[in-house]
Design goal:
The complex is a heterotrimer.
Chain A (H helix, E strand, L loop, with lengths): L6 E3 L4 H11 L3 E4 L5 H6 L7 E4 L9 E3 L5 E4 L4 H6 L1 H6 L1 H6 L6 H4 L4 H7 L5 H8 L3 E6 L2 E6 H4 E3 L2 E2 L6 E7 L6 E8 L9 E9 L5 E9 L6 E2 L1 H7 L6 H13 L11 H26 L2
Parallel strand pairs in A: 1-3, 2-3
Antiparallel strand pairs in A: 4-5, 5-10, 6-7, 6-10, 8-9, 11-12, 12-13, 13-14
Helix pairs in contact in A: 10-11, 11-12
Chain B lengths: L22 H5 L15 E7 L5 E7 L1 H5 L3 E5 L36 E2 L5 E7 L2 H10 L1 E6 L6 H5 L14 E9 L2 H7 L2 E9 L2 E2 L7 E7 L4 E6 L4 H12 L6 E4 L16 H13 L3 E4 L2 H7 L2 E2 L2 E9 L5 E13 L5 H9 L8 E10 L13 H19 L3 H8 L8 E6 L5 E4 L4 H11 L2 H13 L3 E13 L5 E7 L5 E5 L8 H13 L6 E5 L16 H28 L6 E4 L2 E4 L2 E7 H10 L16 E6 L5 E13 L6 E11 L6 H20 L30 E6 L21 H12 L14 H12 L3
Parallel strand pairs in B: 1-13, 11-12, 16-17, 22-23, 29-30
Antiparallel strand pairs in B: 1-5, 2-4, 2-6, 3-5, 7-17, 8-15, 9-14, 10-11, 10-13, 15-16, 18-19, 20-28, 21-22, 21-27, 24-25, 25-26, 28-29
Helix pairs in contact in B: 9-10, 10-11, 10-18, 14-15, 15-16, 17-18
Chain C lengths: L3 E8 L2 E8 L4 H8 L18 E4 L2 E4 L12 E3 L13 H8 L9 H14 L5 H8 L10 H13 L1
Parallel strand pairs in C: 1-5
Antiparallel strand pairs in C: 1-2, 3-4, 3-5
Classes of the chains: A alpha+beta, B alpha+beta, C alpha+beta.
Chain lengths: ~290, ~800, ~160
C-alpha cells in the first residue's frame, strides 16, 4: 500500500520541533528512524495529519559523558552506532550486547534508540535494557522538560508516558558499577525478529564475590518490560551459584503471566523466562569474571 | 557446488553446467518485471477487498471516491455486467467415476463474498496512492454471514454453506482402492494408526502478482502483460469472458517474473478487471499486488488433516495403507493438491493394499491452488512419519525399515494402482530407490551419526536424525510446444509457451536447441510466455516444463536442422548428408573452406532468390519447425534427505547440524540450475517445517498477514546443504528428463519431523503437527513430561 | 492535493531535482521518477530487503525512507555497480559463476547490502556473509549460491 496524505515538516531546531508538537499534538507522529512508523504509514495503519521528521536535530544524535560518570545518549543515536560505539561497549556493555538481536544491519542503519523506546514494542530489546539499567529519560515540550525513570516510561502495550506534545530527547545511563557483568538472552523465531521471550540481566558483585545488586528484566512476556523483582531479591546478598541462578529463574517465571498469542503459548513464555534468566545470569557472572583484572 | 562450464566434455550443451544468460541483466538492474515495464499513460488500479469472510454485498457508495481529483473510475459488479458470465470449471476430477462439485464464481461477486480479501470493486486513478485515497472514501454495505473457517467446520452438520446450490461444503469426495485393504488389516500381525495435521501456506514469491492491460481500439483486442505462470490459460479466460477470438487477446508473461511457485498459475479477478478498465478508460491500466494482498488473496495451500493406518509384518514389511484426510480448498480451487497428496502417500514403497480417501471442503478462506510441492509434502510427511513409527514399534532402525519396503530397481515401470492428478494411471517410469537411500545414508555418514548421537545423549544432549525418501510426480502433460526458426541474422529463435519465473529457460532451452539444430549456444535466442508468438501452451508449474518443452524443442530443432541442411545443400551443391553446421555456417564435411553462413541460408530459405521469383528446385520455403510434445503420463523423480539436528529442550530451539540431499531427476540439462532448484526447494521445505504458518481465526481473518508474523528463513537460518545426484533416465521422452522444480520441498517436513521426534525420544514426544517452532516443540516436551 | 516538496539529491553519481509528494517513498522515487527499476518493492514493511539501496554509503530500506528524507543525500542503486551488461563487477561475476540468481527480484537489494558490507569488511567469514544476508528474503535460491559467490570473491582477493 502507499501512505495516506499527511503534512510533512522537517524542523531544523529542537525548538521548532517542540513548537510543532505543541501545535499538532495528537494529530502528529514523530519520524525518527522510520523503521517502525513507515510500515504503519505504508499499510495505512497510522493516519497522522502531521509527520514531524526530527532527523535534522543533530544535537540529539550524540553520545556524551554524563556528569556522574555515566553516559548520555541522544534519542537520535542510530542503533548501528549503539552497536559499534566504543564508549557504549566499554561503559554500558548491556546495550552493546542487546544490539545484535535488534533487527538486521539494514534496520539498525536507520533505527534510533529513541524511536525504539517511544514505539515500546513489548518484545523489543532496548526498552527492557534501559529498564535494567535504571536509565532516566528526558522528555521535552515547548517550555519545559521532565525526567522520567525508565521503569515509569513504559505504561502499557505500545504506550509510553510521552504526552502528545512531548519529545524524548535523551537517555541518561548511570555509571556502570564496578564488578558488574551483564547478558541478554532471547528466543525468536528467526534471529533479529521480535522475541518470543527474552531476559536482560546485570549482576554486581561485592568485594567478597557475593551479589550486591541484581537486575533481571523480561521482555516479550507482558505488555511492558517486566522487572523480575522476586528473582532479583533472591540473588541479592547471596553467592552467585548455579543453584541460586536456578532459583532466580523459577522466581522470575512465577513473576510473569504472559498471554497466549499466535506465536507462542503463555505457558511457553513463562517456562522460557526461567531458562533465559538462569542462562543470562550465568553469562553475566562470567562477564564479571572477565572484567575483574 | 558445480563449477560452471560452457560445454560437456563431449562438446555438447545438454548436460553442461552453463552459466545463465539471464544473470547479466538481473544483476545490473536491467530486469523487466511487470512493474518495471515502461507504460506511458498508465493508470493505476487499487482493489477494494471485503473485510468479511462471508457476507452479502449491498450498496456500494462511490460518490466521494469519484469526486477526488485524479480518480478515473470505480467499478462494481453492476458495472461489469457484460462480462459477468460464470467462470468455467477449472478441471474435471482426474479419477474416473468421481466429480468435483464446482462452486460457481464470477469476476466480481454478484451475491456474496466468500473470503476476506475477495475483490468487490476496483478504483483507478493517476497513481496508486490516489487510488488508495479514493478507496478509503468508498463505502460498501455488508450483511455479515456465519463463517466456515476450517475444513472440519465445513463438514459439521448444520455448517453454513459456502455455495448454497451445492447443499453442503464438499467440493469432492474421492476414494481410491488397491487390493483388499480390509482383509489385509484384519489379518495383519501389526497395525498402527495416527493423525497428522499439516499446514503449508502461501507462495510468497518475492514479486507478487501484477498485470498491465492495454486495449487496442482499432483491433478491438487486448495486450496484457501479466506476471503469470500460464499465459494461455489467462488468454482463454479473457477470450471467454470478453467474447473475443483468441487471436485478439494477447497475454505476455514479461521476460522476468519474480517467482511463481504455483499461485501465479491460477487466473484471478484482478486480471479480468484490469482489462475491462483499460477498455473502458481507453488507457493502459496497471495493478500491482502488494504483500498484504498476497497474504489475503493470492492462492495458498492450507491445511490437511490425515488419519492414517498401516498394517505390517513383524519384519517391518508393509501390507496395507489406509489414509483418510480432509483438505481445505478455500472458497474456490482445483483438486490438484489433494489428489496429488493422495497419490504421493504410497511413495517409493511396495504396498499391495491401499484405501485412499479424501474430502476437499469449501471454506470461507482464500482459494487454494498449489504451492511449490503441490500436495506432495503432505503425502510424504504422512508416509514417512508412519515408517518412523513402524520402526519404533518393531525396534528397527528407521532407515532399515524403509529399505525393506522400497520398490526394487528392476520393477519399473511400477504401477501403484491409483489414478494420478493428470487422469493417467499412477505409474512410476524409472528409478532406483534402494541405491538413492543407500547413497544418502553413506553421504551422511549415517552409522557414525548414530554413534555420535548415542555419545551426545549420554551427555544429556538431544541429537536427532531424520530420514525421508520420496517419489515426486513431474513432467505431466497435456503438452508444451516449441517453434524454432532461423531468422534473417542466421540466429535460431526458440519460442515456447511456458514462461520462466527464475528457472532459467532462456539458458536451458538454448542448450537443447543448440544441440538439436547443431548451432552454437550463443547463436540461439529464446522467446517465452507470449500467446501471440505461439498459439498453444499449458504453463510453468508442477515441475513439468523441461519434460514437455524440452522434447518439443528437441523435435522441432531436429526438423529445423533438416530444412537448414536442405537449403545449404542447394547453396553448396552438395548432398545434405555430406553437410554439417559448424561455427555458424553450413559446411561440407572435411572441407572447412566450403561453407555458407546461416544468415545466407536464411535469406534463401525465408525470402527466396528475390521478390516474385520462383524458389529454385522445389526447395521448401520457411526455415521454421514446430512441435508439440505430449507425454504419455507423468514422470517420477525421487529424493532422499537426511537431517541431523539438535534440539535445545529448554527453549525448543532447533539447530540443524547437517543436511544431506540425494536427488534423481533423470537426465539433467543443466546441473548448475538443477542444484539451484533443489536448494531453493529445501529452503521452502525448511520454511514449512520450522517457520511459516498461515493462521486464520474463526471469523476467517488472517492473523499472520505480514512478514513480521509470518517468518521466512534467511541465509542465517539456512544450513549448508550437501547434495548428490543419481540419474535414472525417464523412458517417457527422448531427453530422458524428469523434473526438479519442486523436489527440494517434498521430504523436508518429514525429515525434520522425524529428526525432532528422534531427538526428543527420551521424553516420549510425538510430532504429529507441523510446523515445529520453538514454542510448539517446548509445549510438546512439556506435555510429554506431565504425569498422565 | 497531496503536499509536495522540491528536493535535490545525487543518485549513482548524478544530480537530480524533483518535486515529489511528501508521502512518496525513496524506492518509489527511484523507480517511478528516475526510472531506475533495478530496485524492487517486495513487502513495504522493511523485512524482505528487495528495496535496499545505499544512502550516504549505508544499506537502508528504500521503502522505509521518504523521498524528501533523501534531499541532499547520495544514493547508490544496483544500476551503479556495472557500466553495462558486458562488464560485470567482480561480485556480480561471482554471482553468475555460483548461480546466485534465479528470478532476480531480490537481487538488487542483496547486491547493495553486500557492497556496503564488503566496503566495511572486505574479508568476511561465512557467518558474517550470512549475517549480512539475514536482512534479505529470497524464495528461489536457498541463498547458498550467493554465499559461495561472496566467499569466492574473498578468496580471490
Amino acid at each position: 500500500m502507499k501512505p495516506p496524505r499527511f503534512s510533512y515538516a522537517a524542523p531544523a531546531t529542537l525548538e521548532e520541533a517542540l513548537a510543532l508538537l505543541a501545535r499538532h499534538g495528537a494529530e502528529a507522529r514523530v519520524l525518527a528512524g522510520g523503521q517502525s512508523l513507515m510500515p504503519l504509514l505504508n499499510f495505512r495503519l497510522a493516519r497522522p495529519g502531521h509527520v514531524i521528521d526530527v532527523n535534522r536535530l543533530a544535537g540529539l544524535a550524540a553520545v556524551t559523558a554524563g556528569a556522574d560518570g555515566g553516559l548520555r545518549v541522544g534519542a537520535l543515536v542510530r542503533q548501528r552506532t549503539l552497536e559499534r560505539s566504543a564508549p557504549i561497549r566499554e561503559r554500558c556493555p548491556l546495550i552493546a550486547q542487546a544490539m545484535p538481536f535488534v533487527g538486521h544491519p539494514q534496520i539498525r542503519a536507520r533505527g534510533t534508540l529513541g524511536g525504539s523506546l517511544a514505539h515500546a514494542d513489548p518484545a523489543a530489546e532496548l526498552p527492557a535494557v534501559i529498564v535494567a539499567l535504571d536509565a532516566r529519560l528526558t522528555l521535552r515540550r515547548a517550555g519545559g522538560e521532565r525526567v522520567v525513570a525508565a521503569a515509569d516510561f513504559f505504561v502499557g502495550l505500545l504506550t509510553t508516558a510521552l504526552a502528545p506534545d512531548e519529545l524524548l530527547t535523551e537517555v541518561a545511563l548511570p555509571p556502570w558499577p564496578a564488578r558488574t557483568g551483564s547478558s541478554v538472552h532471547e528466543v525468536a523465531k528467526r534471529h533479529g525478529d521480535f522475541a518470543l521471550g527474552g531476559v536482560a540481566a546485570m549482576l554486581t558483585l561485592d568485594g567478597r564475590g557475593r551479589v550486591a545488586r541484581a537486575r533481571v528484566v523480561g521482555f516479550g512476556v507482558g505488555p511492558v518490560p517486566v522487572r523480575l523483582a522476586d528473582a532479583e531479591r533472591s540473588l541479592t546478598g547471596g553467592a552467585p551459584t548455579p543453584a541460586a541462578f536456578a532459583e532466580a529463574g523459577r522466581l522470575a517465571a512465577a513473576g510473569v503471566d504472559p498471554a497466549d498469542d499466535i506465536h507462542a503459548s503463555g505457558a511457553y513464555r513463562q517456562r522460557l523466562v526461567a531458562v533465559l534468566t538462569t542462562r543470562a545470569l550465568t553469562d553475566a557472572l562470567a562477564a564479571v569474571t572477565e572484567h575483574a583484572a | 557446488m558445480t563449477t560452471p562450464a560452457s560445454r560437456t566434455p563431449e562438446g555438447g550443451y545438454i548436460g553442461a553446467p552453463v552459466p545463465r544468460r539471464e544473470d547479466a541483466r538481473l544483476l545490473t538492474g536491467r530486469g523487466t518485471f511487470v512493474d518495471d515495464l515502461p507504460m506511458p499513460g498508465v493508470a493505476h488500479a487499487a482493489m477494494v477487498r471485503s473485510p468479511h469472510a462471508h457476507a452479502r454485498v449491498g450498496r456500494i457508495d462511490a460518490a466521494a471516491a469519484l469526486a477526488l481529483d485524479g480518480v478515473l473510475a470505480v467499478v462494481t459488479a453492476a458495472d461489469v455486467a457484460d462480462i459477468q458470465k460464470p467462470w468455467p470449471a477449472r478441471m474435471p476430477s482426474p479419477v474416473p467415476g468421481t466429480a468435483i462439485r464446482h462452486g460457481v464464481r464470477h469476476t466480481l461477486p454478484g451475491d456474496k463474498v466468500r473470503h476476506a480479501g475477495e475483490v468487490v470493486a476496483a478504483v483507478v486513478a493517476e497513481s496508486r496512492a490516489l487510488a488508495e485515497d479514493a478507496r478509503d472514501l468508498l463505502s460498501v454495505e455488508y450483511e455479515v454471514l456465519p463463517v466456515v473457517a476450517t475444513a472440519a467446520a465445513g463438514l459439521a452438520p448444520g455448517a453454513p454453506l459456502v455455495y448454497e446450490q451445492l447443499g453442503d461444503n464438499i467440493a469432492a469426495h474421492i476414494v481410491q482402492r488397491v487390493g483388499n485393504p480390509e482383509q489385509a488389516f484384519a489379518a495383519a500381525a501389526h497395525t498402527l494408526r495416527e493423525t497428522f495435521r499439516v499446514t503449508r501456506g502461501g507462495s510468497h514469491s518475492m514479486e507478487g502478482r501484477g498485470v498491465v492491460a492495454r486495449y487496442d481500439e482499432a483491433l478491438d483486442g487486448f495486450t496484457v502483460w501479466d506476471a503469470t505462470q500460464a499465459p494461455h490459460a489467462v488468454r482463454a479466460m479473457l477470450a471467454y469472458l470478453f467474447e473475443l477470438p483468441e487471436h485478439r487477446v494477447r497475454v505476455i508473461a514479461p521476460p522476468d517474473v519474480g517467482g511463481g511457485l504455483g499461485p501465479k498459475a491460477s487466473v484471478y479477478p484482478e486480471e479480468v478487471l484490469v482489462c475491462w478498465l483499460a477498455r473502458r478508460l481507453r488507457r493502459p491500466v496497471k495493478w500491482i499486488e502488494d504483500r498484504h494482498e498476497h497474504f489475503v488473496s493470492a492462492a495458498q495451500e492450507r491445511e490437511q488433516v490425515h488419519t492414517v493406518e498401516i498394517a505390517f509384518t513383524g519384519e517391518g514389511r508393509l501390507l496395507a495403507l489406509r489414509d483418510v484426510f480432509t483438505h481445505d480448498i478455500g472458497m474456490y480451487g482445483a483438486l490438484v493438491a489433494p489428489v496429488i497428496s493422495a497419490c504421493t502417500v504410497p511413495g517409493p514403497y511396495r504396498i499391495p493394499n491401499i484405501h485412499s480417501e479424501f474430502r476437499a471442503v469449501y471454506t470461507n478462506l482464500q482459494p487454494t491452488g498449489a504451492v511449490r510441492g503441490a500436495g506432495r509434502p503432505q503425502g510424504v510427511l504422512v508416509m514417512e512419519r508412519m515408517m518412523d513409527r513402524m520402526a519404533e514399534t518393531l525396534g528397527l532402525d528407521p532407515a532399515e525399515v524403509r529399505a525393506r519396503n522400497l520398490i526394487p530397481a528392476d520393477a519399473f515401470p511400477y504401477e501403484v494402482g491409483m489414478w494420478f492428478r493428470d487422469g493417467a494411471r499412477l505409474t512410476y517410469d524409472s528409478g532406483n530407490y534402494p541405491e538413492l537411500l543407500r547413497r544418502a545414508l553413506e553421504r551422511a555418514d549415517y552409522a557414525q551419526a548414530r554413534r555420535e548421537q548415542a555419545a551426545l545423549r549420554a551427555q544429556g544432549r538431544h541429537r536427532g536424525i531424520g530420514v525421508a525418501i520420496c517419489v515426486e510426480g513431474v513432467g505431466l502433460g497435456p503438452f508444451e510446444g516449441a517453434i524454432l526458426r532461423l531468422d534473417g541474422r542466421g540466429r535460431v529463435v526458440v519460442t515456447s509457451g511456458a514462461p520462466p519465473q527464475g528457472q532459467g529457460y532462456q539458458t536451458t532451452f538454448a542448450q537443447i536447441a543448440a544441440d538439436a539444430v547443431g548451432v552454437r549456444f550463443e547463436d540461439v535466442d529464446v522467446v517465452t510466455g507470449d500467446t501471440g508468438a505461439i498459439p498453444y501452451g499449458t504453463g510453468s508449474f508442477a515441475s513439468r516444463v523441461t519434460a514437455n518443452a524440452g522434447p518439443a524443442i528437441l523435435q522441432a530443432g531436429g526438423a529445423l536442422r533438416e530444412k537448414i541442411l536442405a537449403v545449404g545443400a542447394h547453396l553448396l551443391e552438395a548432398a545434405a548428408a555430406d553437410l554439417a553446421i559448424v561455427d555458424g555456417a553450413v559446411r561440407v564435411r572435411g572441407m572447412p573452406d566450403r561453407g555458407v553462413p546461416l544468415a545466407q541460408v536464411a535469406r534463401l530459405g525465408n525470402a527466396g532468390v528475390a521478390f516474385g521469383m520462383v524458389m529454385p528446385g522445389g526447395l521448401q520455403v520457411g526455415l521454421e519447425a514446430s512441435a508439440y510434445f505430449a507425454p504419455a503420463q507423468a514422470g517420477y523423480s525421487a529424493s532422499a534427505h537426511v537431517c541431523i539436528l539438535d534440539v535445545d529442550a529448554d527453549t525448543g530451539e532447533v539447530t540443524i547440524v547437517r543436511y544431506v540431499v540425494g536427488h534423481d531427476c533423470g537426465n539433467v540439462i543443466n546441473p548448475l540450475l538443477v542444484e539451484g532448484q533443489i536448494l531453493g526447494g529445501v529452503a521452502h521445505g525448511l520454511s514449512n517445517a520450522l517457520y511459516e504458518e498461515a493462521i486464520f481465526d474463526e471469523q476467517g481473518q488472517s492473523l499472520a498477514s505480514s512478514f513480521l508474523d509470518y517468518p521466512l528463513p534467511s541465509a542465517r537460518e539456512m544450513p549448508r546443504v550437501e547434495m548428490f545426484h543419481l540419474t535414472t533416465p525417464s523412458p517417457l521422452n527422448p531427453l530422458g528428463v524428469k523434473g526438479a522444480g519442486e523436489a527440494g520441498t517434498l521430504p523436508v517436513t518429514a525429515a525434520v519431523a522425524g529428526a525432532v521426534e528422534d531427538a526428543l525420544r527420551s521424553f516420549g514426544v510425538r510430532v504429529n503437527r507441523m510446523p515445529l517452532n520453538p514454542a510448539r516443540i517446548s509445549d510438546l516436551i512439556h506435555e510429554a513430561r506431565r504425569p498422565s | 492535493m497531496s503536499e509536495t516538496r522540491a528536493i535535490a539529491l545525487t543518485v549513482n553519481g548524478r544530480p537530480h531535482r524533483a518535486t515529489v509528494e511528501t508521502r512518496l517513498t525513496l524506492v518509489d522515487l527511484l523507480r517511478e521518477e528516475l526510472r531506475l527499476t533495478g530496485t524492487h518493492v517486495g513487502c513495504e514493511h522493511g523485512v524482505c530487503g528487495a528495496c535496499t539501496v545505499l544512502v550516504d554509503g549505508e544499506a537502508v530500506r528504500g521503502c522505509l525512507l521518504l523521498a524528501v528524507q533523501a534531499d541532499g543525500r547520495h544514493v547508490e542503486t544496483v544500476e551503479s555497480l556495472a557500466p553495462d551488461l558486458e562488464h560485470l563487477n567482480p561480485l556480480q561475476a561471482e554471482f553468475v559463476r555460483h548461480h546466485g540468481v534465479q528470478c532476480g527480484f531480490c537481487t538488487g537489494g542483496i547486491l547493495m547490502s553486500l557492497t556496503a558490507a564488503l566496503r566495511d569488511n572486505p574479508r568476511p567469514t561465512e557467518a558474517e556473509v550470512r549475517e549480512t544476508l539475514a536482512g534479505h528474503l529470497c524464495r528461489c535460491t536457498g541463498y547458498q549460491g550467493m554465499v559461495d559467490a561472496v566467499l569466492a570473491l574473498v578468496a580471490a582477493r
